[in-house]
Amino acid sequence: MRNPRPSPLLTKSVSRRQFLGAAAAVAAGYAMAPAVECAEPGRSKVVVGAHPWVYAATQPGYDITPILPQIFADMAYAGMEGIELMHTALRPADAVERIGELAEKHRLPVIGTSFGGAMWDRKQHAAVMDDAELVITRLAKLGGTTLGTSVGQAPKKKTPEQLDAQAEVLRKIIALGRKHGVTLNLHNHTYEVVDGMHDLKGTLARIPDAKLGPDLNWLVRGGVDPVAFLRQYGNQVVFLHLRDQHADGKWSEALGEGTMDYAAIAAALKEIPFRGHAVIELAHERDFKPTRPLRESLKKSRQFVRKVLGY
From its phi and psi, is residue 188 left (phi > 0), alpha (psi between -120 and 50) or beta? Predict the structure, then answer.
């Protein structure tokens, strides 16, 4: 897939205000370009990106800010068409400028960010909304359009009252995102889908038309068949997280090196048909010792997605 031509965005004479406006326009253009090009005959409309969790897991406080240059360089090398940030990377005051520069330098658009909070706890709603306001407005300036949202794990199985509170703040974040051209999707870990998908179904009972961004590997770890999930909720699925694991349940080093049935998943995605963003999110066990640089595992994963899923 071709990348857009470089932009003369970064010049020494550009003021901060001019830079912010130009960064948003350029990033938005990058984000749209893969979809436009993929509209050609024989091409998929799905944009394939990556999430930096595997990098964050090695950093103090999971803070990727100091290593963002490496992350952007590695993902561009691997052939990604976009990056889904972690929302903590958007908190520093200069985040838009720095991330915009990296997106421009590596011609790697910001397509969205992951986001989360204890949404079931009404006492934390004000803090969650303050965080959402900051993250969404900065994400929009970078041209990002997706907010992969985790609702937070409660100490015990959530009560109807907690699920009510969760849905209440989610509706507010959905509306806030809509104002800025950002679409919220419900991103699951295991806690949302265990116990017969009690948590996720509780949210969907209250917000039936909520968009979904399932992590297919967390579905497996939560005892849910990803193929059945895609077939049941396919018309609401706008985003995917892709990862793999071995037969013993441990994560594989790269996507495609485990035993998850991605051929069956590919068939289900074709049936839907899926037309959102597919994001590779590698993760390794705490005692795992990589056999290759992360950029090579990302590259192998990208090649697998192209070969098996057709994106």
Answer: beta
Query: And the tokens for 94?
Result: 């200069």
Residue matched to tokens 């192998």: 300
Q: pLDDT for 183-215, tens place per residue?
A: 999 999 999 999 999 999 999 999 999 999 999
Structure tokens at 49: 């990106």
For the record, the structure tokens of 227 come out as 């193929």
The reported pTM is: 0.86
DSSP annotation string for 142-203 = TT--EEEEE----SSSPPHHHHHHHHHHHHHHHHHHHHTT-EEEE---STTTHHHHHHHHHH
CA 163 to chain centre: 23
Which helix (DSSP H) or strand (DSSP E) does residue 33 occupy?
helix 16-38
3-state secondary structure of 47: strand
Pairwise CA distance, residues 284 & 245, whole Å: 10
Q: Which residues contact 203 (CB under 8 A, 6 or more apart)?
A: 151, 163, 166, 167, 170, 186, 192, 210
Q: Could you give the CA distance from residue 182 to residue 292 in angstroms, rounded to a whole number?
A: 36
